[in-house]
Amino acid sequence: MNLADLNQIARAMVAPGKGILAADESSGTIKKRFDVIGVESTETNRRDYREMLFRSNEAMSDYVSGVILYDETIWQNAADGTPLVKLIEQAGSIPGIKVDEGTQPLPNCPGETITVGLDKLAERLAKYYKQGARFAKWRAVIDIDTTRGVPTHTAIMTNAHALARYAALCQQAQIVPIVEPEVLMDGAHDIDTCYNVTEWVLKETFQQLYFQRVALEGMILKPNMAVPGKKSANKASVQEVAEKTVKLLKACVPSAVPGIAFLSGGQSDEEATAHLDAMNKIGGLPWGLTFSYGRALQAAPQKAWSGKAENVAAGQAAFTHRARMNSLAAKGEWSAELETKKAA
Ligand code: 5MM
Question: Active site residue: 51, 180, 182, 204, which one?
Fold first, then answer.
């Protein structure tokens, strides 16, 4: 492992004003997204849609440091035969790859899951590196349901162990691991319950990373923010989310980690931007703090595009706007007026 090179890539992924596009929807998830806009999920439509994003020059060159791809996409060519990976590289962005193989029920823990995909991962990473991937992503999913005693320590510990196994294998393959332990926003829990569960999850994750000798300087953390569950009666202000999330991360994430890139987790586009902005406005943070959004970057371009070739420019404009808003938020320079100006 060359740690200096891993560190350089990790720092580029969270360079000031830049963040990550999570375009790694598995076939099932992209079908759900396309269903919403009435587009059939064929291989060509998936390619056309992602090509539209990767050819958004301003967004890709100025605001997007890296793109997380799904296995199908990393091998695909654009309509003119250019590999999609090359489009990303030509824009000055870094190709990355989702390497987990989804979740399975965790034995003896009803309703909880374990993320799988460690078997043969070393071989797969070597192939992805040859194809241009310089970082990878693995997502663990932790649910909250206090009425059933969920999450259990078993789910937290086994998922943290798998995340650390994955991260060690990535670094051995000269690939920067994005470590994503996602505590879901589903449910009626309040913000403090989310805070406490996320703290538990992050403590366990960093302990496993230590046990498995993962170099913190060569990784990126992709956590959820401290937010109330979607069905909670107690909403939280932008400032409360920002303050609690910063406090939580300072308590759990060593400063050797170059950057933290949040998932959006079902927040609205503007909420995800406002929260990121408010955290960066607090300032004095030991790590870069940016976005690694899927839905909060893509919902608008998906709607604008709606599968029609004549809407490509509108789809790219919508994507560029969201990427620019989040770039400003990553520097603490966003304001709600900037959103309104665009709408006007
Ligand atoms: C883009 O969605 C990713 C893939 O999900 P599936 O494996 O379920 O298809 C997902 O891992 C994503 O990268 C993160 O959850 C962040 O996305 P959001 O939409 O939460 O910002």
Answer: 180
Spatial distance between the Cα atoms of 287 and 11, rounded to a whole number of angstroms:
10
Q: Is 308 a catalytic residue?
A: no
Query: Are the CB atoms for 16 and 326 separated by under 8 Å?
Result: no
Q: What are phi and psi for residue 65, nearest 5 degrees? A: -80, -30
ipTM score assigned to the predicted complex: 0.92
Q: Residue 149, Cα to own-chain centre: how many angstroms?
A: 27
Residue 185 CA to residue 127 CA, distance in Å, equals: 34
Instruction: State the pTM of this model.
Output: 0.98
Ligand 1 centroid – CA 344 distance (Å): 31
Say which of 98, 137, 222, 244 is annotated catalytic. 222
| CA-wise closest residue to 117 among 164, 162, 75 | 162
| Structure tokens belonging to residue 68 | 């997380």
Q: Which domains does the chain have, with CATH numbers?
A: 3-339 (3.20.20.70)
pLDDT in tens for each of the 344 residues of the chain? 999 999 999 999 999 999 999 999 999 999 999 999 999 999 999 999 999 999 999 999 999 999 999 999 999 999 999 999 999 999 999 999 999 999 999 999 999 999 999 999 999 999 999 999 999 999 999 999 999 999 999 999 999 999 999 999 999 999 999 999 999 999 999 999 999 999 999 999 999 999 999 999 999 999 999 999 999 999 999 999 999 999 999 999 999 999 999 999 999 999 999 999 999 999 999 999 999 999 999 999 999 999 999 999 999 999 999 999 999 999 999 999 999 776 54
> Is the beta carbon of 327 within 6 A of some atom in ligand 1?
no
Distance of CA 334 to the CA centre of its chain: 20
Atom of ligand 1 nearest to the CA of 100: 7
Under a CB-based contact definition with an 8 Å cutoff, are residues 4 and 246 in contact? no
Phi and psi angles of residue 31, each rounded to the nearest 5 degrees, phi first? -65, -45
H helical segments located in the chain:
3-13, 27-36, 43-54, 57-58, 71-74, 84-90, 121-130, 153-172, 191-211, 238-252, 269-282, 295-305, 312-330, 336-343
118: closest CA among 131, 139, 101?
101
